[in-house]
Amino acid sequence: xxxxxxxxxxxxxxxxxxxxxxxxxxxxxAAVHLLHTGEGSARRAxxxxxxLCANDSRAxxxxxxxxxIPVATDADHPHRxxxxxxLSGPARARHxxxxxxxxxxxxxxxxxxxxxxxxxxxGVEVTGYPAGWSVAAARAAIxxxxxxxxxxxxxxxxxxxxxxxxxxxxxxDPDRTVGTALATRFTTEQDATVRAALxxxxxxxTRAHVQPPAVARFRRRWRDRTEAPEVRLAAAIGWLCxxxxxxxxxxxxxxxxxxxDERAQAxxxxxxxxxxxxxxxxxxxxxxxxxxxxxxPEPCDDPWAxxx
Length: 308
Hints:
mainly alpha
């Protein structure tokens, strides 16, 4: 992945990468080619790459990440938004439908250093390829590209700012470069949905090495009545993921007051919430149910279940 990342800056051809060695590699190569050339609709390419991740077959999609970064960071490229939207999909495993307090925003350990069997706790993909390897490779590419991705937090398009925060949240951040950039942008950001994205991204980057001051900051944020409801709800979700402390009564009250159906639907514009959504249940409401009321059963999506 490091070689691909450096090679793309020198104009490395797609065919220099052994796509055929990976399941669905030829399809991933075709998707990257379409996005690079800017020809036709980007939807077909992003559906392909996103589908590989959703189907737990992300190895080839991870190989595509270094090629997507130059497209996503080119302000004049017609498919930059599409490339950025799927950029970090391979960097997250088992996150579709995940909404529990102990799993949402979770960055697992590096399989090369922390797992005795080199598989980490991601297990294996449906193809038999170690899922942790795909995730680690995608995150390595995004980490290397952090300097190129950070300016996107200041883009004029709010969707670009949201997706940039989503991608940067997967980067390794030992010197807090990403965390500092998220906090800096938060001080000037006016869009409530983008502010909520910055909060969730900060929680995700923090979860790897949680410190008490960070937990306290998120508590202050969801308690701040001057803040936008979307931001307070994002901070509440972040706080729940960063600590296993008992849920205080005022957090229940805050969520009950702010988490309306309309707001939950609107917050599905945040990729974290969209990924957490279930059948007919917006991501925010699913997170609230799984985190605050884990004893409740999953909503039934069988139309005949109660017809007898």
